[in-house]
User: Fold this.
Amino acid sequence: MKAKKLAKLLFAIGVSASAAQVGASNDVGGITPMPFNEVTLTDGFWKHRMATELRVTVPFSVEQCAPAVERFRRAAAFRAGKPTELPETHRFISSDMYKVMEGVAYSLMLERNERLESFMDETIELIAAAQEDDGYLYISHTCGNPNVDEMGPKPYSYVLHSHELYNVGHLYEAAVAYYQATGKRRLLDVCIKNAKHVNEVFFKGGNPKYNDGKPVMQAPGHEEIELALCKLYRVTGDKLYLDMAKKFLDIRGVTFHTDGTGVMSATYAQQHLPVREQTEAVGHAVRAAYLYTAMAQVDALTRLGDYDNALNSIWSNLVSTRMHITGGLGAVAGVEGFGAPYELPNLTAYNETCAAVANVFFNFGMYLASGDAKFLDIAELSLYNNALAGVGLDGNSFFYVNPLEADGEFKFNVGQGGRAPWFGCSCCPPNISRLILQVPGYMYSYDDDKLFVTLYGGSRTTVPVAGTDVDVLQTSQYPFDGNVSLRLNPAKKSRFSLHLRIPTWTSAYRFVPGGMYSYENRNDANVEIRVNGKRVKYKMEKGFAVIDRKWKEGDNVELVLPMPVNVVRCIDKVAENRGKVAVTRGPLVYCAEEIDNGPSVREKSVAVSAATSAEVSEIGSGILSGLKQIKMGGGADAVTLVPYYSWCNRGPGKAMTVWVNATE
Ligand code: FUB
Ligand code: ZN
Assistant:
């Protein structure tokens, strides 16, 4: 791999140039994404969201971390033998803080902020002081006040539910990000020490303090460390961490099984089969999606393709039987996970924000490994609908669960009654926050003489393609408008192919891959591409329109992705959606809220034919200002719809529905 490409790839996945020089020598196949901090948002949707993210969400999240930071302060004092109250017993509040720290690190790559950097450095010192000399890091056991039912009596004695490795996995991600942002390696060293300790205790044994000196040899109940170890490998170049990631994957479902029900069932933690033999998405959705993300990464890094078949089967199963139209995963509340095929309730849908975030990570990784845009369709679906619904437009109010219907009552005490500033179990807010910060990194990628534009939005970047640097300036109001303009400025005239993603939602019949959600009206509008004003023919390859030519400075490409209002019918097997339709426009799923439609909104009906006369207009004032609403139907059945991601931003959540009764 050329040095420049390797350096960019390393950076994109968590390595600064200096780190790349220090040790990382691993080559990674497939497509290279442009690092998010090398893509400047210039206008439009993401520029706006990013401003709220940096101005509100990141500092707000830091404030919300205070109780988690306090635990570390106490643990540090405890270890130093100073008088202190014991830290509150908690399985994974640390992980929420680590995710906040990861987000802070990303924000520092976008704009320097001394206050945030001080928060990081001070917190890192507390973490380092709370770490045991042998590398162990988990406050409740270190301070001798574990909740034995949740954590076991001793370190690593209840790996199924203790979250010891889940926590440190998030720490590794934060450390890699902070090293990438600042070059400071204090936290990275804490993680290296911890990872080496985990390797000894889990795979070698010998220390009587842990599992009587025998190797624990058990995969953690909550996946996360596997994908984090891939990041640690990439940043250090030390193959130990990749080997550990693969070992944790390969012992899952092999060395340990539970045989209970609910959270004690083997499927709950994806341990019912060796992972390479798994074919269906089962169990806890966040765990599952982190697992699949790690499998894709380990496959890419080892080039063994061990999990290829499993991943493709699981993906097909997911998108054709177990995914809501919003890209939501994990419909069933009790297990925060997948139910039976087609078990996709609306009012009681769980669809945790974290699961949607993980769905983006998983599918973007699958795209990078395969070059197939069908994975981007799912990443985009999940991003613009379920994931974004997880954070309010104000930037500091959140949803944990994301149902597709609401009646104004609290269902799980974590969402439907309204957005919340934070949660007792607050995994979701920092997850959506760290995702938004990385979105510019989902816009462009490249591979030798191919330049891919994968997500549309006002932005600028410089992509190394075909031996030259190509400056790309994109103008677009996507996802509300399907016109995209690209000005290409290669440093020198060069031949390369421009790959423009043509989303599945532009097709005549289908909203997304998977066969569950089809257009009821035929979507006959055609995609058009012009180069310097002239319409061009293009070939389609893996979901991309490919234009192969010699490009020169100032070439202008216009892409038109028509965005009519579409009416979507769900596969009949989903009992809840029979006789109903959903309304979509572009990648956005719309919903009808009580505030626009009255309290009986869930009883309204729309005629499929009303889509052709639907009015699309920009909302002029209020918090939804700038968003496009849809009005369709007439009389008692006139319906006003807003993007699903924007629901419950105008006062507490009342009635809402995505699936509307269909009269035809
Ligand atoms: O267990 C840690 C996190 O809390 C999970 O990822 C979420 O589903 C929630 O249970
Ligand atoms: Zn969550």
About this structure: The pocket of beta-L-arabinofuranose (ligand 1) is lined by residues 92, 222, 286, 336, 352, 354, 425, 427 (CB under 6 Å). The domain at 444-502+526-560 is CATH 2.60.40.1180 (Immunoglobulin-like). Residues 45-64 form the longest helix (20 residues).
